[in-house]
Amino acid sequence: MAGGDELSGRIEFLLEIDKLKSVLRRSLLVDGSRFENTAEHSWHLAMAVMVLAPHAPEGADVVRAMEILLIHDLVEIDAGDTYIYDEAGRADKEARERAAADRIFHLLPADQARRVDELWREYEERRTPTARFAYAIDRLQPLLLNAGSDGASWRRHGIRHSQARAVNQAIAEAAPDLWELARSLLDACAAEGSLADDRPTRTP
Amino acid sequence: MAGGDELSGRIEFLLEIDKLKSVLRRSLLVDGSRFENTAEHSWHLAMAVMVLAPHAPEGADVVRAMEILLIHDLVEIDAGDTYIYDEAGRADKEARERAAADRIFHLLPADQARRVDELWREYEERRTPTARFAYAIDRLQPLLLNAGSDGASWRRHGIRHSQARAVNQAIAEAAPDLWELARSLLDACAAEGSLADDRPTRTP
């Protein structure tokens, strides 16, 4: 068959990335029934890009943001999911993920491996409006799952309002409408106790 | 906030489609550990489009095929997954899925609901090279999972080589390279017994 070796590499890659379905995240599904895995999370992010495209910043390439989010967590097959609030785990995250990218992406033919690597690095570097929008979506989705499940994951890990606000601040630069929504969800969650409420008390 | 009502609809839709992560399919993961759900399946299909784009037929819009595959199974939230080999279940599939589409897509603002509906109908009608490529990918992926897991799902349901070949024949029109691969996988699976071998015996 024409290009048979290249096709074999593509198929090997597709079989390998099936493992992403077994990488568990800290978020629970909205119905609280179980932890979310990274493959279905990636699907949900691509859907969020499609649906929230009208809120993307100027200059963002929405299709590219979708592709970025489909591939951005493939490195977790080797490196595992590092919880956004785990500061120790984040220290060597970069090196672990770079090694994973080198192994996994290079199952593909060279030109495709290069393209996936470019998408992934664009995401990690957050220099383009596209990457910043993708990152904002990747922050917003777990917030929606948490808000939708009465803070199931935040409660388990004792996350405070100030932490959640700091972690999600990146949404503000990329998509002001989405940040306004996120901020009001975080406030509501703190008020009802699904997020530990450490908001400064307001002077009257 | 500008367009607040539209944003609320988008968020409601994103929370609703979280349910797709709880719709189980008949395929097992490659490692055989559990059934695949439809959300992670949809992610895998979008990845397969990205990676197998060089095998797409002339005139296929690869980005659109990816979007089609991200949304094509949303109707299963209400209608459930109908097994490709379940002929009785397929009889009223169309009506059940049409009702599901009407409910779920219309959580979105009207213009977005219309676009998702168009993508879904394009897939269902299979008239364009884009839809035929998307369908071929949707056939090939479970075949890869089955071949990769020693026919776990085929064995459970006693699927025969002739059935698998008939169901996957659609790959032939859309992507001859992929059909050549599929055909050789099906033959190998029949030969090793992970697919019931009803191939006609060859005269010498």
Q: Quote the beta fraction of chain A.
A: under 5%
- Widest β-sheet, arrangement of strands of chain A: 1-2
Estimate percent helicity of chain A. Answer: 55-70%
Largest interface: A-B, 50 and 50 residues
Q: What is the tally of helical segments of chain A?
A: 12
Query: Which blocks of ≥5 consecutive residues of chain A have pLDDT under 50?
Result: none
Q: What's the rounded overall pLDDT mean of chain A? A: 94
What is the string of helix and strand elements of chain A?
A: HEEHHHHHHHHHHH
Principal-axis shape of chain A: globular
Number of strands of chain A: 2
Structural class of chain A, please?
mainly alpha
Counting copies of identical and different chains, the oligomeric state is homodimer
Straight-line N-to-C gap of chain A: 76 Å
What Rg of chain A is obtained from the alpha carbons, in whole angstroms? Answer: 18 Å
Please give the largest β-sheet of chain A. 2 strands, antiparallel
